[in-house]
Amino acid sequence: MAFVRLKICGITALRDAVQITELGVPFLGFNFYPASKRYIAPEHARQIIENLPAAVHTVGILVRPTLEECLMAVKATGVKWLQIYDPQDFDDFTKLPVQVIAAYRLKKGECFEYRDKGEQYVLLDAFHPDEFGGTGSSLDWDGLTSSVPKTKLALAGGITPGNIEQALEIVGPAIIDVASGSEHSPGRKDLQKTLALQKAVMRYNLRQLSSKY
What we know:
alpha/beta; single chain
């Protein structure tokens, strides 16, 4: 049985990163898209990553990157994963030296047809014309139509402590991805909200485990 895992995105401070890691959150996202409200410079991200336990899955978020830019981001920061929106000059993620989360933004009612490009996970997020992630807008979970296997599905978009259990029960993804729902201002994390999110994931996993026996 595969358990759901929580990913907290938009890390900008070492203290937040350390505290969230201590709660047992396995994935931390660092946004390298300059237009993002949660942008972090690669050199700053590296300073944080170097102070985290080796077991933490550090994820660099890139928007419309070239292959060269992806390789440079990995080298400059030490991230173990990349989350990629709209790659420009390649569509084979096995060319990269790290694991990949392929990210897609869906408009309301849009059906997503999955095509394997060598990624480990496929992240589905709500479409926004100007922003990539962290918008606070939710997908229509009940109407979500996707051919992505649940074992590869990462769900993002408007997830908060108040609705995470609903998202888990309806969609049942492999990863639940939260940015704005885990903070008190863009890039500054709220530890109580993050704890509530992690506890919700743990409760869900326990229910799934109990139902197997």
